[in-house]
Amino acid sequence: MDRTVLHSDLNNFYATVERKLYPELAGKPIAVCGDKEARHGIVLAKSEEAKKFGVKTGDVIWEAQRKCPGLVIRPARFREYVRWSRAVRDIYARYTDLIEPFGIDECWLDVTHSKIFGDGERIAERIRGEVREELGLTVSVGVSFNKVFAKLASDLKKPDAVTVVGREDVRGKIWPLPVSDLLFVGKATAKKLSSVGISRIGRLAGAEPSFLKKFLGKWGETLSAYARGEDNSPVRHMNESADLKSIGNSLTYREDIYNYEDVKRLLYVLSESVAARLNDSGLGKADTVHLWVRDKELENYSFQKKVRPTALCGEIAEAAYALFRTQYKTRRAVRGLGVTVSGFDKGVRQMTLDDLSGEYEKKERAEKAVDEIRKKYGYSKIQRGIMFEDRSALSMDVRGERLVRPGGVDGEVASQDDGEPDMEPFEGD
After folding, report:
1. DSSP state of 48
2. pTM metric for this prediction
3. What is the CATH number of domain 175-240?
4. How far out from the chain centre does Cα 182 lie?
5. How far is 321 from 405, CA to CA, in rounded Å?
6. 184 backbone φψ class: left, alpha, beta (φ>0; ψ -120 to 50)
7. What tens digit of pLDDT does each residue of 216-260 get?
8. Cβ contacts of residue 369 below 8 Å, gap of 6+?
9. Where along the chain do its domains lie?
10. Which residues are catalytic?
């Protein structure tokens, strides 16, 4: 028997919440943005009115304002968004306890055994109506027999709509769509697939799995199965938390970055966020540091290295910087950076010579003291010396903002160019 899976996507969520908090914004084009005084001042979300002017997620603020002269810029308030998101999930819980979040504004719901409320489409309509009437928010809901197609269905008609995709609809509704519409197919993967004539989901579904495996690795087989509707992944219980495998943060910047010192400084900003969240998590220390780089051509690169188990910002940042200096070979200007740690010891590990000497403990105490000062008096009250070389870096509280890189990052390793760089070398060579 087929499952009945819903994917619920709150429309223009951040902007709509801002209107609920400030009714005088009704009817005005709104963009919720990062700090406009810092490099990461980009559009995180926009209202329907702003969309009509061509404002897009990831636009830098000046670009968005050029497209829409009357654009109202609102700062992101994630605590409020979380509060409203929880209120919406309380409505979902009236119909099922199988609720799996996919970001703050999206959820999957398995309502296979909720037939007392009607079929999937009926339940979706009830949810849509209750969210609108009780909270003043709108939601687009996709109904299908698996998570991947339910997600795709919710994207087909927005805002405030319900779209059903049954097995009989796959060939007519799904397969003609661009392959980039399929979940987990980002820009880099879509570009690769297009290079071999696979631009539609139907072409992906019909491609030989062995070829896709050779072309894209094991992930190629997975995407092929998704295109054919072969997704059996369950919707997790609302109280089930996924085992945390990594902690990371990333930022996309307004200007191209050419200077090694700027890269190092920004890696320290990100590593402070990662280290603070790692220490808060109770997962112990991490033994692997991952670096993500997006270049000026919007190509993405990933590198990693083993380190001695650590939760120290300085050690994480220096490992990430070493990866950048040794592994980033294209030498193109940089537009985005990300730092992630994994391989947690959960507090159980062998002692090292550094432990016995007390050096690690001293560094740990110093970083914890800094974090406590920031919690009490604000992030900017105490900074590393490297930050003062760029005043904009002083305002980047990435731990508090938890910004995500906008749009379509696959997280995959792009092909490396070992030839001559297509730009001037980074300063400091």
Report:
1. H
2. 0.65
3. 1.10.150.20
4. 16
5. 19
6. left
7. 888 888 899 999 999 999 998 887 755 668 888 888 776 788 889
8. none
9. 1-163, 175-240, 246-401
10. 106
